Each structure stands twice: as structure tokens, then as C-alpha cells.
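Notes, p. 3: input format for complexes.
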Amino acid sequence: MESFDWKSLGFGYRKTDYNVRCYWRNGEWGELEISSSETINLHIAATALHYGQEAFEGLKAFKGKDGKVRIFRMDENAKRMQDSSDGILLAKLPVEKFQEAVRIAIKMNKQYIPPYESGASLYIRPLLIGSGPQIGVKPADEYLFMVFVMPVGPYFPQGFMPTDLVIMRGYDRAAPQGTGKYKVGGNYAASLVEGKKAKHGGFSAVLYLDSKEKKYLDECGPANFFGIKNNTYITPLSDSILPSITNKSLMVLAEEMGLKVERRKVPYEELPEFEEVGACGTAAVISPIKRIYDADLDKEFLYGEKPGIWSTKLYNKLRAIQYGDEPDKYGWTEIVE
Ligand code: PLP
Ligand code: COI
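Output follows (337 residues plus pyridoxal-5'-phosphate):
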């Protein structure tokens, strides 16, 4: 095994020893298979390759001070993959099979789980692809589900230090009644051009407005958006954003901390009113935002250079549950035996 400098890990692909696979053929799911290969053998006419029939997930496992490994809200990811499957007509994987595959992938690669002190974690990437051939536009008759894992650090290199976002009205990641609410590969392909522009300009991500009217905040490229003002945690309600499991958890924790929680349309005009803003997601955890630049209107919205009080509290609380430092009173974690 390659030796890792756990504390300075970024977010990127790293080879681990084993991955788990499962095929859907003749109308049913087969057994879970363990593989040590990083590649797959795929039909040249697989629907994943031609028509983007692909969905994925992202979740994490954490090693605690007690040496135990906890997976965070895996059932939610399994259910969301089923929703994505309904969205693009993939064969639906049973929740239990998803969970078993994830547990095996973690156990088989346990030496890659970063130590507690490092603040890093094991990123788990399940994916489900149309593997059967079609050349007309229709769903495949064979599917392949896979899970692989890798140790990761923060998604944005700044970690928990505030970063910058950019608004560019010339690009949409998802249509108003399209696939934005599903975790499907096509949404991410659609975000690459503006994502590259944003990075080039020194921004960590694009902040998308709703694609119909450009009046309301939607989400960031790889994460949901939230703002805090007047003791209220506010996050966009929209049909074209991914229902983030991190955001769902933060809403519960915010309420527990005494904040009001509002999930509603968030007009662009509200941006100057927020005391704190952030991006949240599995990879991003909470990434506080210090500046939102509107590239079309050449206008900027400034927030603190340092993480705000509530963002910090929420971040600490979420991490404490994930690493097992605090009791898991909501039953969000599963210990891998
Ligand atoms: N929004 C998008 C577009 C994402 O890709 C992600 C990442 O999964 C999120 C939001 C955050 O979702 P979650 O908290 O479930 O990881
Ligand atoms: C995640 O947060 O798990 C994601 O999938 C975001 C990004 C890497 C696409």
C-alpha cells in the first residue's frame, strides 16, 4: 500500500485494493462480486456511453477516536440512487444490496480509512450504469452497479476556510423540469465548461440561479447552498437541485441549535441580507463562502473572511456525529463491524 500523508490529502481518485460489482441481467440482480481490477469490460454500445444512462452516489465513512468506523446516512444514499434510477430508467437496486456492497467495499479496504486525527475520511463512490447495448434511444437491458472507495481530504482546497463563488447567467446545469434533482452523470458533464471558467477565475464553484427566470438561487456545482440571517437557516427549495443529505442533516441540527429553518425560494435580492453563506455536501462538508461575484452584473457580495459563528457550530456538530465524538441521537451512523 502506498503511504499517505493523511493530513494533507486532497479530494481525488486514489487506487485502493478492492471494489464491489453486481450485474442486473435477465430482469434480476446477481450476487455481489469482489474485484481487484480498476477497469471494467464494457460493450461499445452500452447506453451509459452513448446516452448517459448513469447515476452515482457519494458518501463517507469516518474512523472515530474509539477506532470504530461509522458510515453516515447510507440508507439515504441508497434511496436517492433509487430515485435517480426512476429518473433515467435504470434497473432499481434494492437498498439492502446497496448497503451490503458499501459495507464490503469498506471492510476490504480498511487500511485506507484515514486515522481519526487526520480529519480525513473514506469517500465511497457507488455508481450504476446501463451496460447493455442499444443504438436507438432506449434503456439498456443490462446494468452494472459498482462501489469503490478512496481516502480523501477536503473538496475545496481551502477546507473549512471561506472560498469564493461566481454567478454566470449564461450557463445552466439543469432544466426546470429536467434531471437536476437526480444524481446523474449528465448534470455534471453539463457543468464542466462553466466549472472550468470558475476555477480559472479563482472561484471554487459556480452558484447557479434557477434556469427558468434567473431570479432565485439554486445550488452550487457540487453542493447545496445555504444562507443564515436573523437566527434563520435558509436554503433553496427547487425542483432542479439535488436533495442533499448533508443539507437535510444540517436543517435538523440548525433547529436543534435554536435556529429557525426555512426551505423556500431564495430570491437573488436576498444575497446582501445574509450574515453567513455556505456550500454543503458530502464532499464539501460545509464550505463557508466569503465572496459571491456576479460576473454578469460585475457586482460582489461579501461575507466574512473567517467562518461565521453558526457555520462553525454546524460544521463542528456534524463532524462530531460523523466521527462518533458525540452521541448519534438521530441514528444517522452505522458502525461497520
Ligand atoms: N448538489 C450537488 C449537485 C451534488 O453533486 C452534491 C453532492 O452529492 C450535493 C448537492 C450534496 O449532496 P449530499 O449532501 O447528499 O452529498
Ligand atoms: C459528493 O459530495 O459526494 C459529490 O458527489 C459531489 C461531487 C464530488 C460531484
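The pocket of 2-OXO-4-methylpentanoic acid (ligand 2) is lined by residues 58, 222, 281-283 (CB under 6 Å).
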